[in-house]
Design goal:
The protein has 409 residues and is mainly beta. It has helices at 35-43, 275-278, 372-377, 394-398; strands at residues 20-25, 56-60, 63-67, 79-83, 94-95, 117-122, 127-132, 135-136, 143-144, 149-154, 159-165, 177-183, 193-198, 203-208, 213-218, 230-233, 236-239, 244-249, 259-264, 270-274, 292-294, 304-309, 314-319, 324-329, 339-344, 352-357, 364-369, 387-393.
Length: 409
């Protein structure tokens, strides 16, 4: 990608160094076709602002994509964009690619649109891969109204170019495919594989685009740790038994190989596997010893959400009960003295839920924080800023720290 102009952050909200806040919202609103449409959506329950929670993000060119799962009634659009360049504190989200793909304007879409999107990823060929759970009202009375699927958009045209339905044999009772990461080494993306985590039924699904085939790995490392399933955040205590969630790919090494690092949400540990294992469908039942434990525990309150690795091999990850974004230089051993802190803030980084690293020549790390556990337990304060998108340069983020690849310990 060509280098882009640096971004305009909100000048009054720079208290999370080295992060800048690009946007922050008390509640999320959308760009409706007109104010009349907006009022109508509120009146008939298609738009309930308190039920709208931004969850995931991705960055490409001049835009940021934001996912909004249909966890409760009143989510009019499940995928939207905002400008990458800031300038407005709390912009309205623009449904992607347009309103016709979303249930507020197309309730009878027969599963041809978007239902409930958790995570997204963009390949280096400029295609947006959307992981759609197909489930609505999962926080109240879950309804599986469409099969889980992957929808691919061409970002040059913003048109859908493929839809891959996850086969029934890989969708277990209560499966929740919650994260997706793309792996391609060729310039034309012809070798692309997608790795997809089933957080509630503890599996790792692999999709090979060339022949549209799926296969699924199972392993005990995908399960939650019962000793890490008790969470405490700002006085709120809750229990989650979430399995494999965080996925991060190493840079391609000199042998054209990559490593997938992963962890359950309810865990203090990190694990890894060579992608050569994952890309071989014949290894599904013959790979138990290929999945490895990485180094030491992150310690008490070390539960992590999303993670991402920059082209220098530095991993960034959210520590959800510490209001922290952490880091690790993958060239160093994974032990506590090598695990650094990029930022910690008890206001702006409450539950850093998703993390992405863009594909610019000089990369930036992007974080969305959203107070998810509070949202699930009670209505959020509409007078407080509850959701933020923050960013910083990946080099600046770790310069002079234990995560700096230029510093050896």
């Amino acid at each position: 990608m060509l280098g882009l102009t640096r971004f305009q952050s909100i000048s009054s909200d720079t208290e999370t160094p080295p992060f800048n806040t690009l946007y922050k919202w008390k509640y999320v609103d959308f760009e409706f076709p007109s104010e009349r449409h907006r009022r109508y959506a509120i009146a008939n329950g298609d738009f309930v602002p308190k039920n709208v929670l931004p969850l995931g993000l991705e960055v490409w060119g001049s835009r940021i994509w934001v996912t909004i799962p249909s966890w409760r009634q009143g989510v009019p659009a499940t995928l939207a964009t905002v400008s990458r360049f800031g300038g407005v504190t709390s912009p309205r989200l623009k449904p992607y690619p347009d309103w016709s793909f979303h249930r507020a304007f197309n309730k009878n879409n027969n599963c041809t649109g978007l239902t409930s999107v958790f995570r997204i990823n963009i390949d280096h060929c400029g295609r947006l891969w959307v992981l759609d759970s197909g489930q609505i009202d999962s926080q109240d009375s879950p309804k599986q109204i469409c099969p889980p699927s992957i929808i691919v958009f061409d970002l040059k045209t913003d048109m859908p170019i493929a839809r891959y339905i996850i086969p029934k044999q890989y969708v277990l009772q209560d499966s929740l495919y919650a994260n997706i990461i793309l792996d391609s080494r060729r310039e034309d993306c012809s070798d692309l594989h997608a790795y997809i985590s089933d957080t509630w039924r503890f599996g790792l699904l692999v999709f090979r685009e060339s022949d549209e085939s799926f296969w699924r790995f199972s392993h005990h490392f995908f399960y939650p740790d019962p000793l890490a399933s008790n969470f405490t955040l700002h006085g709120l205590n809750f229990q989650w038994t979430d399995g494999i969630f965080g996925l991060a790919l190493s840079p391609v090494d000199k042998f054209e190989q990559r490593t997938l690092y992963f962890h359950p949400m309810s865990s203090y540990r990190e694990f890894y596997v060579d992608t050569s294992v994952l890309r071989d469908s014949l290894r599904v039942n013959n790979s138990a010893n290929d999945f490895k434990l990485l180094g030491e525990s992150r310690g008490l309150f070390g539960q992590s959400s999303a993670s991402a690795i920059d082209k220098r091999g530095v991993m960034f990850y959210g520590l959800v009960t510490r209001d922290t974004v952490g880091c690790w230089d993958s060239k160093k051993s994974y032990r506590k003295q090598n695990l650094g802190v990029v930022a910690m803030n008890k206001e702006t980084l409450i539950f850093p839920n998703d993390i992405k690293i863009d594909q610019e020549e000089r990369q930036s790390i992007w974080v969305i924080s959203n107070r998810l556990p509070e949202f699930q337990s009670k209505p959020l304060d509409p007078n407080d800023y509850n959701y933020r998108i923050l960013y910083t340069d990946t080099i600046d983020a770790v310069q002079g720290t234990v995560c700096d690849p230029n510093i050896q310990y």
